[in-house]
Design brief:
Length: 516
């Protein structure tokens, strides 16, 4: 099945033949659905903080910073913004009559009607040499304007990553998501020496674009916030790419008869995360940003989430040190088991409860000596995406899991009912502790559930293919972490999935009204 030049490609990508064969078997066998038992909810896996608790946990985080706690902000930022402009691409590829129809309602009408309210409007207006105050002229030249936005002879937004696009307009300048992450990082992510560490995962093709914006703007933001930034980058590892197959599960080959490998999805970033070393790691997607004047809730809850992590991690470390150094009394073991069940939502099997003191101590040590993540969860308001559930995790035990809809068998009425009655969804707002009680880094790859990948249908050059995605970064890649869910307000969740999302009031200047 493999040819001589295939072996050379595998060597270049550092992918073993065994891994390829394993992936080919996964295509044949598929992946099991996640066995969800119920949705997590307030007081049943999700913590709701009152005002006093928010302040208490914020103080706890600030105390940690004062005591030398190190912090990194981890921002997944790979990939082009193509999907953000999907409807605009459909428009410019349509025939003239279809374009005229599309301009009368829906996405295209909204885009052209409000074009002057986008932060990129000034640059686009100049590129088109069209006054955007003249709505009639804008609609007459709709296709020309959108081509100038997307294609290489204009702003080229259709091939750029989201991070470098102009998202927001302030009184002084148009700002990119990169800059908004600088503002955020300065607000809650600086250490006790005023250093702000931000790590972007980028495509190798795009890193120079990020560096250009950082080089141009860093002095401005360092002076503005009186901090020092340390910006680092990484790309998805070549060996995390996965082989593509034909519909019959045989290896897909390009016109040049080469095997096709595709990026393994954001789950591949667990390896990038694994290389970072800090006491606290914040994770937030590149497109989930707001202008600086709307940051209050985000800052408050980021610090509170970090305080929750710091608080529970302190207690976990105290118990682990005790277990590692002494023979723990029966009463103390029961105290730890109660803490695990009531505070950390860790299920304790009946055979452990009825087992010997050594059995209990071994179980407690194993379950507490793991990475910890605190995940913000937003009330479900119909946004697409995964959510918090009680599901069967890596070791066959019921535990808190972030589960994507694609992982759930919606053909089962009982599972569909659980999903339909879920109260919260996942906005990708995480704070992670990846060191153990001895201040050593965990190997995060040990905590991935390999059964939680999935297969999707794609095409290349008109040929259908199947692609394999690795367990998602905050799904199966963190399946075996200690997991805490904390409710956060919807005001902290403002992703830009389509270009017209930028017309929402959350992305507009302080004095503006919503245009969406």
């Amino acid at each position: 099945m493999l040819k001589e030049n295939d072996h050379k490609l595998l060597i270049t990508k550092e992918i073993s033949i065994d891994k390829v064969n394993q992936q080919l078997e996964q295509f044949k066998n598929g992946f099991p659905f996640m066995d969800i038992k119920e949705a997590a909810s307030i007081n049943n896996g999700i913590i709701s903080l009152n005002e006093e608790e928010k302040l208490m946990f914020t103080d706890k985080y600030r105390e940690g910073i004062d005591n030398g706690c190190s912090v990194i902000k981890f921002v997944p930022a790979s990939g082009a913004a193509t999907r953000m402009f999907k409807d605009l691409f459909s428009f410019i590829h349509a025939d003239t009559s279809k374009q005229e129809e599309m301009k009368k309602s829906g996405v295209i009408k909204d885009f052209l009607s409000h074009i002057k309210y986008f932060a990129f409007a000034e640059g686009l207006s100049k590129a088109c040499n069209i006054n955007f105050d003249d709505e009639k002229l804008v609609f007459e030249n709709g296709a020309f304007i959108i081509k100038k936005l997307l294609l290489a002879d204009g702003l080229n937004y259709g091939t750029f990553p989201k991070g470098v696009l102009k998202f927001h307009q302030s009184a002084l300048k148009a700002t990119t998501p990169i800059e908004e992450h600088l503002n955020e990082g300065a607000a809650y992510g600086q250490d006790n020496e005023g250093l702000v560490n931000i790590h972007f995962t980028v495509s190798g093709d795009h890193q120079s674009l990020f560096e250009e914006i950082i080089d141009q703007n860093l002095p401005l933001y360092e002076a503005k916030h009186d901090v020092k930034f340390q910006i680092t980058y990484s790309t998805q590892k070549g060996h995390t790419d996965t082989i593509a197959v034909n519909p019959d599960n045989t290896p897909f080959r390009t016109k040049e008869e080469e095997l096709l490998f595709r990026p393994g999805g954001h789950g591949a970033l667990i390896e990038n995360l694994n290389e970072l070393d800090a006491d606290i790691i914040f994770i937030k997607n590149i497109d989930n940003v707001v202008p600086e004047h709307r940051l209050k809730d985000t800052i408050q809850y980021k610090e509170a989430l970090a305080g929750v992590l710091y608080h529970y991690q302190d207690q976990v470390f105290e118990y682990l040190k005790l277990l590692n150094s002494d023979t723990v009394s029966s009463n103390k073991l029961q105290e730890i088991l109660d803490f695990m069940q009531q505070e950390l939502f860790i299920a304790v099997p009946d055979d452990i409860i009825s087992g010997s003191e050594k059995t209990k101590a071994d179980f407690v040590f194993q379950k507490l000596n793991r990475p910890i993540r605190v995940c913000g969860m937003v009330k479900n308001e119909g946004e697409p995406g995964g959510g918090p559930f009680w599901g069967i995790g890596k070791n066959g035990e019921v535990s808190l899991q972030v589960v994507e809809s694609s992982q759930i068998d919606m053909n089962q009425a009982a599972k569909k009912e659980i999903v339909n009655h879920s109260t919260h969804f996942n906005p990708v707002d995480l704070v992670c502790g990846t060191r153990n009680y001895k201040e050593e880094k965990f190997n995060l790859l040990d905590y991935v559930d390999p059964k939680t990948g999935f297969i999707s249908n794609k095409s290349l050059g008109g040929k259908e293919l199947k692609a394999l995605e690795l367990p998602g970064l905050w799904n199966g890649a963190m399946s075996d972490w200690i997991t805490l869910f904390v409710e956060v307000p919807v005001s902290t969740f403002n992703p830009v999935k389509t270009v017209n999302d930028l017309l929402r009031i959350q992305h507009q200047p302080e004095s503006a009204k919503s245009h969406s």
